[in-house]
Amino acid sequence: KSNLGHTQAAAGAAGVIKMVLAMQHGVLPQTLHVGEPSSHVDWSAGAVELLTEARPWPENGRARRSAVSSFGFSGTNAHIILEQAPAEEPVPVAAGTGAPLPLVISGRSEEALRGQAGRLREFVAARPDVEVADVGLSLATTRSSFEWRAGLVAGDRTELLAALEALASGASSETVGAPTGGRTAFLFTGQGSQRVGMGLELSEAFPVFAAAFDAVCAELDPLVDRPLREAIVDAGLINETGYTQPALFALEVALFRLVESWGVRPDFLTGHSIGELAAAHVAGVFSLADACRLVAARGRLMQALPRGGAMVAVQAAEADVLPLLTAEVGIAAVNGPASVVISGTEQAVLDVAEKLAADGCRIRRLTVSHAFHSPLMDGMLAEFRAVAAELAFAEPRIPIVSTLTGSLVSAELADPEYWVRHVREAVRFADAVHVLEAEGVRTFLELGPDGTLSAMAQHCLTEESDTFLTPVLRRDRSEAESFTTALARLQVRGAAVDWHAVFAGTGARRVDLPTYAFQHENYWPRVRPGLVGDVLSAGLANADHPLLGASLALADADGHLFTGRLSLDAHPWLADHAVAGTVLLPGTAMVELAVRAGEQVGCPLLEELTLEAPLIVPEQGAVQLQVSVGAPEESGHRTIAVHSRPAEGADDVLWTRHAVGLLAQESAAGG
To answer: Taking the complete model, does pTM exceed 0.85, yes or no?
Structure first.
């Protein structure tokens, strides 16, 4: 209390903080504001003494210990003994992965968030020994997550300082926001999004991804003509269906395992065409070995079909396209409310496309080797059915929204015929997104080489929907940076992340970071207009205080009297100070009354104040308040007392004294 002041309910916690810091610094702090020891303690007994000056607390081979006691006004006492933590064993510093790392910062307001960034930038600039991994781990595991958040990504100190500067100055807002409710869905991309070298950078940056990718390749390589890693770097092979589909499957499964290792869990899964097979596998519908057999057979049999046919993307609603279809043309995909892909024999598809173009619809022919999801797939269905029939199926552990049926599915996935239809019939991606939105999904994370599905899903959502969509990878961007940025943005949205797993293997160590950037604002209670009348006409002076209405200098005693009226109607903030349902005037308010009265009479220093009885503020009605200040003594001190009584029927009720104390003139040394 002598060092920190009267902190009421926080007194015990403040004492703990004080002694923990004393242990850290090896110094016993001086007892402040004590002129002489209390006469109520026998200081001659035992080895207890007040410290009149700070004293070193050196190491002596034994753990430092201290005791903290907190005595409550109501009689609740708490005692704790603190012991110095054992010295930490040196931990070998790992080499790190070299991948960019996420740094999460938060504050209770946007101003506080930017203030945090500014303080952190000063800290990093002044500490060249602190690494990016140290700051990232410490931010994520030793700081609270408040309403306003930012997710930064940096690979070295230069990038970190630049990112912090941009956030502090307000120049960066891309990864700033507040957590929102809702569920999470993972989207698995389909054919057409593939690119040369996809996933190879991730394999170098993240061991978890590399292990998962290698495991899939080990199953797929015996089922394709060339090793999958060779096909991925070959611009010709990667665009052949027999390699495209296995490569996408391997990438997406490995991405899921990497996201999963960071502690992020989906509520739903859905996939576009081949992407649904990846979703089904990670949900547990079939084993990795069976999934690879099905994926390899699907790509191989499609590749073996005669080349030909056409696919055209049409900016039109499904209802406008259906009347134009023939036996040779079908809908391959419904990707949005006005986004349909038609597929079939070349001339028949082009004829339908020309009719739609004549009606004002925009059309675009897709570059494909085969007309997928059309009647031209019929030649592979029998052999594919035979492969599917040999597999073992199970119900999904994670709910899946089918892009075949456009609905939640479970037992259907264990039917081989489902996967045969999946090859031949339309991909109903728009319907799947509508179902996910109806299920409360507000965060979509796309697992694939690019942001194809994120862009399409955006057009399927309702305008009122507060939904966040982000791909983990983007074409022509660093894979490691794109992935880390996406996960940092998920954390801003409120997703749970296993930060210890994120920083495992980086050599990160915890460091002491700057304290919170508090936003200072004065909160002075204001008396509502009309509650204080014209006191001057009654021969009184205005007290100019929210709790006191008038003051009076006594004529014959050189004393002063201050009066007021307390009620929840006039002072609604008092309702926050309820104990067991009863509103009490807090002790700090008593101190404020005494200090204000002392300032009025030239004794602004409150030397002591003893609380004798709680001052209860009734739910209805009010209490009269008096603060009396006595005449000055020879030393210049004045006594002070605080009394109250109910306002209603006050003439018949005795006054209750709540506090007495002693006021003093301010010392020449300024206290």
So the answer is: no
